[in-house]
Design a protein that fits this description.
Blueprint lengths: L2 H22 L3 H8 L3 H11 L32 E4 L4 E6 L4 H4 L4 E3 L9 H4 L3 E4 L10 H7 L12 E6 L2 E13 L9 E6 L7 E8 L2
Length: about 210
């Protein structure tokens, strides 16, 4: 085969290889989950253990909140507590309890022993919410989009987050994001986190201040 022809054949194979990579890249975690279904459970345990690694701070070490009043009660709001992040399409119910194995299969989990939105002023502790990035094989695509933190890395400083809690809407604004193995800023009023990859202890964190 002439060298010129061989070059174009190799180039074509290389381009096809790149095309396959670009097609598979967004869905490769789902493929891995299908091949290794126990991964979701392993990640759930990792998510649940994250608060154990953080260094607790006393209330005197935490900056005061930016607001001191509760938002008005609105009977038109949903009775179920929920998280809304329009920037990344999240619109899911917040689940509570210590049984993280079961709760994380339902979507968004409020980490116990930290504040609820209506308690954070008194306790001077943040609300902490966790969720899977890729979820479970049993999740539909529409459920995954609304209830997973797959797009959490896309949040940036200035983005808005809303919590519906006891039919009051609490508004927050992102002021920082980072990746690491522990929560580093307890001055936040709201912290969201999820796994980066199943093979790494690194997690994705989003920190927000309440603005209303």
């Amino acid at each position: 085969m002439p060298k010129k022809k061989r070059f174009f054949v190799n180039l074509g194979i290389f381009l096809w290889f790149l095309t396959i990579i670009f097609i598979l890249f967004p869905i490769w975690p789902h493929i891995f989950y299908r091949l290794s279904p126990q991964t979701s459970g392993e990640l759930a345990q990792t998510l649940a253990e994250i608060p154990l690694f953080v260094e607790q701070k006393s209330p005197d070490d935490i900056s005061p909140l930016t607001t001191t009043t509760l938002p008005p009660f609105d009977p038109a709001l949903p009775e179920k507590n929920g998280l809304l992040i329009n920037t990344i399409g999240v619109r899911g119910e917040i689940h509570e309890g210590d049984n993280w194995q079961e709760i994380l299969t339902l979507g968004i989990w409020r980490v116990p022993n930290f504040a609820t939105p209506d308690q954070s002023e008194e306790t001077k502790l943040p609300v902490i919410l966790a969720a899977h990035r890729w979820g479970y094989l049993s999740w539909s695509n529409s459920f995954r989009k609304l209830n997973s933190f797959y797009n959490l890395p896309k949040l940036k400083k200035g983005d808005k987050i809303n919590l519906i809690w006891n039919q009051r809407q609490y508004d927050y604004q992102v002021y920082a994001t980072n990746q690491g193995t522990r929560i580093t800023d307890y001055s936040a009023n709201l912290i969201l986190y999820t796994c980066q990859l199943w093979s790494s202890p690194v997690r994705i964190f989003v920190y927000a201040k309440r603005i209303y």
